């Protein structure tokens, strides 16, 4: 019965492969053969390919779905001509910013590629540091949702108010920690496969470099080599990237405990050079075969894949109005122009660029954009307008150096309570109504505000800056010069 079942499944897999290949152009079929050769070399020869395991990260984006299809074609092609084929670990990080559209894209593409129940494939998701079977219907757990909310706020506050608010630093830090851990789980993997361009790799590592400095676990990172040095870099950062914000008792262990290799063997294989042809030529494969559906705004994303374009435009507008003394509309306009340059550099079809401008142009009243952006932040991170304003001014770090400025601009009625606020932020006794105000206006518990108060703002450095005091784990240099 087992032999009959195996024969039946092999027939199904070959049918999947034939249908998949029918969507490939001649250039893509050539790229597929080159991919197979690259994997065989990495495995130490085709005779070892059956013991070779690769990791591919899934976000439900257009590019990640296409990369997965290419890898599945390679896996099934090898299986049809060799005794064994490589094992595939497909994993995704559950984060508050995940859209339902992205999760549905993953679910449909997994089904189209017949990944479910294939013993050569692992479909995983990580939620609140726990490795679980992938389930597109499972909402992010409440503990994980709250942790991501707090971490977004903590990293956002680690800056001087005059610096632009990079709201997505937690996503870089959480993704990097996830890469390091999912590659070690359950006997680990031999390689992570990525199709990002070197520019996109450096953009991610630049974001991570900024985030690790804000998290006070390292200085600026070397990003010029891209992901070639990713795993050695992650190993040097340690096991818990949020350790400076939480006590030992508050930290959550990676689970299932005891199932993570202490010593990793993972390397990185870049297949960006095998992504051939024009973007529009891939749409039949993506839409007709994989069932991929584009989220309207995902077409307009900049290099920062975590940022919702509406929210990013809103933040730029808020920065311009409340910090720089210009108009909200001027900040939004600068974001649109910057995004347009990025889209054209990435060779996004001109009709899509025009569609982006038209979409934002239809928001004639800036209040519409604000309402939509604030709705996204509320739904995803329980972050309201008052808390966003607090985050914009970053009043707690560096012993509350920016607190008076924040109160004068946003809460002048609380200036009389300034001494009580400082006492509360030092962990000393303060009136209950002062403690409640701190929590309401920031979205943070008092104990975390106290920790921010004791930390300086980060003076972000580039790797090689002589001013760095940064051995891994050292507190990044504070900078009060921008405080005005």
Describe this structure in words.
The chain has 484 residues and is an alpha/beta fold. It has three domains: 2-289, no CATH class; 296-381, no CATH class; 390-483, no CATH class. Helices cover 50% and strands 6% of the residues. The chain has helices spanning 2-22, 26-43, 62-79, 100-112, 142-157, 169-182, 198-214, 230-236, 283-289, 309-323, 328-345, 350-361, 366-381, 385-393, 397-400, 403-410, 418-425, 432-442, 446-453, and strands at residues 53-57, 87-93, 121-127, 130-133, 191-194, 267-270. It has a six-stranded mixed sheet, sandwiched between helices. A hairpin with a 2-residue loop joins strand 3 (121-127) and strand 4 (130-133). Helix 2 crosses helix 3, helix 10 crosses helix 11 (328-345) and helix 11 (328-345) packs antiparallel against helix 12 (350-361). The longest helix has 21 residues, at 2-22. The chain is globular and about 80 Å long. The N and C termini lie far apart (77 Å).
């Amino acid at each position: 019965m087992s032999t009959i079942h195996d024969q039946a499944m092999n027939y199904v897999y070959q049918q999947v492969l034939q249908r998949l290949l029918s969507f490939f152009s001649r250039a893509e079929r050539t790229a597929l053969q080159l991919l197979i050769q690259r994997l065989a070399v990495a495995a130490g020869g085709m005779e070892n390919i059956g013991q070779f395991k690769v990791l591919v990260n899934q976000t439900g984006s257009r590019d990640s779905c296409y990369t997965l299809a290419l890898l599945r074609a390679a896996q099934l092609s090898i299986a049809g001509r060799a005794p064994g084929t490589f094992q595939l670990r497909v994993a995704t990080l559950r984060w508050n910013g995940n859209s339902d559209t992205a999760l549905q894209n993953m679910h449909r593409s997994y089904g189209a590629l017949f990944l479910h129940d294939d013993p050569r494939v692992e479909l995983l998701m990580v939620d609140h540091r726990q490795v679980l079977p992938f389930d597109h219907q499972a909402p992010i757990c409440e503990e994980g949702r709250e942790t991501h909310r707090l971490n977004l706020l903590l990293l956002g506050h680690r800056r001087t108010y005059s610096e632009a608010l990079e709201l997505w630093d937690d996503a870089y830090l959480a993704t990097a920690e996830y890469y390091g851990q999912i590659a070690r789980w359950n006997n680990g993997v031999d390689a992570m496969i990525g199709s990002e361009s070197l520019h996109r790799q450096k953009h991610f590592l630049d974001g991570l470099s900024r985030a690790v400095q804000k998290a006070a676990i390292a200085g600026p990172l070397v990003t010029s080599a891209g992901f070639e040095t990713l795993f050695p870099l992650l190993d040097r950062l340690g096991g818990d990237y949020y350790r400076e914000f939480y006590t030992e008792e508050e930290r959550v262990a990676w689970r299932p405990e005891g199932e993570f290799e202490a010593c990793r063997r993972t390397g990185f294989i870049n297949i960006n050079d095998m992504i051939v042809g024009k973007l529009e030529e891939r749409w039949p494969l993506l839409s007709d075969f994989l069932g991929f559906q584009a989220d309207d705004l995902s077409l307009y994303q900049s290099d920062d894949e975590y940022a919702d374009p509406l929210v990013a435009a809103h933040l730029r507008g808020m920065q311009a109005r409340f910090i720089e003394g210009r108009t909200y509309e001027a900040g939004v306009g600068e974001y649109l122009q910057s995004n347009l340059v990025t889209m054209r550099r990435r060779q996004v079809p001109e009709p899509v660029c025009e569609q982006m401008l038209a979409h934002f142009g239809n928001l004639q009243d800036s209040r519409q954009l604000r309402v939509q952006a604030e709705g996204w932040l509320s739904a995803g991170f329980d972050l309201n307008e008052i808390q966003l304003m607090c985050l914009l001014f970053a009043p707690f770090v560096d012993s509350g150096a920016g607190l008076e400025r924040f109160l004068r601009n946003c809460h002048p009625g609380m200036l009389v309570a300034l001494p009580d606020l400082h006492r509360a932020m030092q962990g000393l006794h303060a009136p209950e109504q002062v403690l409640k105000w701190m929590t309401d206006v920031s979205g943070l518990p008092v104990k975390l505000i106290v920790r921010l108060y004791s930390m300086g703002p980060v003076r972000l450095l580039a790797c090689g800056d002589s001013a760095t005091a940064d051995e891994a784990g050292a507190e990044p240099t504070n900078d009060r010069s921008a405080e005005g």
